[in-house]
Amino acid sequence: xxxxxxxxxxxxxxxxxxxxxxxxxxxxxxxxxxxxxxxxxxxxxxxxxxxxxxxxxxxxxxxxxxxxxxxxxxxxxxxxxxxxxxxxxxxxxxxxxxxxxxxxxxxxxxxxxxxxxxxxxxxxxxxxxxxxxxxxxxxxxxxxxxxxxxxxxxxxxxxxxxxxxxxxxxxxxxxxxxxxxxxxxxxxxxxxxxxxxxxxxxxxxxxxxxxxxxxxxxxxxxxxxxxxxxxxxxxxxxxxxxxxxxxxxxxxxxxxxxxxxxxxxxxxxxxxxxxxxxxxxxxxxxxxxxxxxxxxxxxxxxxxxxxxxxxxxxxxxxxxxxxxxxxxxxxxxxxxxxxxxxxxxxxxxxxxxxxxxxxxxxxxxxxxxxxxxxxxxxxxxxxxxxxxxxxxxxxxxxxxxxxxxxxxxxxxxxxxxxxxxxxxxxxxxxxxxxxxxxxxxxxxxxxxxxxxxxxxxxxxxxxxxxxxxxxxxxxxxxxxxxxxxxxxxxxxxxxxxxxxxxxxxxxxxxxxxxxxxxxxxxxxxxxxxxxxxxxxxxxxxxxxxxxxxxx
Length: 551
Known about the structure:
Elements: E1 2-7, H1 15-31, E2 36-38, H2 56-72, E3 77-85, E4 94-102, E5 105-111, E6 136-138, E7 141-147, H3 167-173, E8 178-183, H4 191-206, E9 209-214, E10 216-219, E11 222-225, E12 229-231, E13 237-240, E14 247-252, E15 257-258, H5 267-285, E16 291-294, H6 299-312, E17 317-321, H7 329-342, E18 345-348, H8 352-362, H9 373-394, E19 397-400, H10 404-409, E20 422-423, H11 430-440, H12 449-453, H13 473-485, H14 490-495, H15 500-512, H16 514-518
Parallel strand pairs: 1-2, 2-3, 7-8, 8-9, 16-17, 16-19, 17-18, 19-20
Antiparallel strand pairs: 1-14, 3-4, 4-5, 6-7, 9-12, 10-11, 12-13, 14-15
Helix pairs in contact: 1-2, 5-6, 5-11, 6-7, 6-11, 8-9, 13-15
């Protein structure tokens, strides 16, 4: 049997677009001699639909589109994900379903059994878990269909399982000799290795073919890397789709051969591709084609400019340079050079005249030689207002340029540098920003070398440096990772050799600045724990962990 792995990038809620894409990929798979084509989880409506599922017309429209697909696609079997209604009077009203159909007939349907509620997932909010583990005999194979999380509970792989059931093992016990897992499995650094090892272990343990088809693309903050594959009963990969792009690969499970397409070499390349894809999808799926950003002469805005140019094309990116009395000549030269290297539009808009008009009424005791936090924030808010004005005038989305380290510590200004429609690198720690910049310059200099070499500075006061207010980033970032991503306590971090005073200071600042992050634009998730709806901490709270450094 030849199976097509149809890795598509749906738009949430755009049923006509998604249906046309499913038909087109099914036609291509049939033309390539496939007996069956497999699409990702909830491929008809796009994942995650979130509270659109509370709209009855949204669900009804999806069911109508599914019926049309079943009637229209001929000459090939199709497995695709869709929403279905729960006919039972109790429980949630909907199922997360996978449907197998062919030539106008619905042959088999399963409901997702394991519904995740951690990190960015909240599926129990709308879906009722399925209970059946039936297999289906199709073209000489007994197929066991599972949906994403259903495969993430293998007792031989996870030391602590969060579900009591293991749908995959039950499908095998029911006679399955071909496992098909349709997924919408989000990307973060290192996850692909973990996921591949887990699924290879399942295929090898049961001595069974395993087909894994993942969604690709960006939907709001959540990014999907694709990387669909087919594993033989030895756990070896015999077919593999590309990363961060739509693709169709074919595997012949009778002959044991398939298409292998190239993918990223390392985590830095993967993050770069993820950010480019996520930016392109967020901007265009929100109905925009052009973006603007403030280009300061620093490394963060330089990286965002490179991402935007790669994602949307040079003709769709405008950089705005807004110097003040504290801006160095180097930054003027560097921003201009970067814009020329990227061949993007560059606008200079000095802020001193506006700044001077603000100060008499807001800060009458302003000392030009020693601007305090108030005067520094005024500058950031002037820049934010100018950028929003240009955004409104040109119909271009504003990209904010703050990194994860700054956002964690609150080293950013509400209604200033936090303004924007998308926070492109808000999940990229400062040290990773530099690694990405070096990758961009690996073949030729795009980002002027002086930007990479200069000490980071907000340039809101004379001779200002980030390290005046923050620990060095090479020390700060490991603490932030331990606290935010690994959820280590202060005591555990101190036991790891981290400085106790610094650990406690960082924890206090991260917790104290939760209110700022609630007001930040959505960001693109590339680490295991990003700020946003996957990390839900209260703002008004008084929990203070005991300081282990105080005896």
